[in-house]
Design brief:
The chain has about 100 residues and is α+β, with helices and mostly antiparallel strands. Helix content is about 25%, strand content about 30%. The protein has a five-stranded antiparallel beta sheet, covered by helices on one side. It starts with a helix and ends with a strand.
């Protein structure tokens, strides 16, 4: 029973940042019924979408990721700065941000 409780507690920790975001501020937000974790370090942010989404439900995700950055950090995403691990990936994205 203790092992199960420990396993559940660890799984609740959610997303981990990319190595360049180790030590970053971590924020969580839900937008449009989708959970996101935002990591901010300096003038950069990484957004990780939590949970599974079918292909049809993924269309609004890139805009929601940018909104997640704004709501959690107070900073705007620099236009054209979005980078993902895979083209078209809606599971994670990295941005340059402008906090001025």
């Amino acid at each position: 029973m203790r092992f199960l409780c420990l396993l559940l507690a660890l799984s609740a920790c959610g997303a981990s940042p990319a190595p360049q975001f180790f030590g970053a501020e971590r924020h969580e937000v839900t937008l449009g019924g989708i959970d996101f974790v935002v990591f901010r370090k300096g003038d950069k942010a990484e957004v990780v979408r939590l949970g599974y989404l079918g292909r049809a439900a993924r269309d609004p995700v890139p805009a929601l990721m940018e909104e997640a950055v704004l709501r959690t950090t107070g900073c705007r995403v620099r236009p054209g700065s979005r980078v993902t691990g895979l083209p078209g990936d809606t599971g994670e994205a990295r941005y340059e941000i402008d906090c001025g």
